[in-house]
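Worked example 2:
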Amino acid sequence: MFACRSTTMISALRLLRSNQAVFPGQLQRSLSTQTEGEVRMAKILREKFPLASSLKVVDISGGCGAMYEIHIESSEFKGKRTVQQHQLVTQALKEEIQEMHGLRIFTDVPKH
C-alpha cells in the first residue's frame, strides 16, 4: 500500500555521488523540521488535548507518512489506564490512521 522512498540520507549520498544537480525539495526531509503529516496530526492532538504539557509527532518511516510515533503528556489522562489513554489518541486520529501502516503511541500524565 505504501511505497516509501529510501531514507533522505541515502538519497542525498546517491545524488552527491552521481554529480547530479540537487533541486529544491529533494532533500526536504533533512532540511525541514516537520512533515505535513506531523504538522496535521499535532494540530489535531493539540485541539483534542488542550491541556497537553508535551506533544511530539514524528514520522518514523523516513518521511513518507507510513508510520508515526506520538509522545503526549496530558493531565487529561489522569486516572485512565494506558489502554484508555491510547484509545483517546487513536479516536482523535481516526481518519489519519486509515492512511498509515503503523503507529506507536506513548502517553503519560505530568509529574507535578
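The two ends are 43 Å apart (CA to CA). Residues 36-48 form the longest helix (13 residues).
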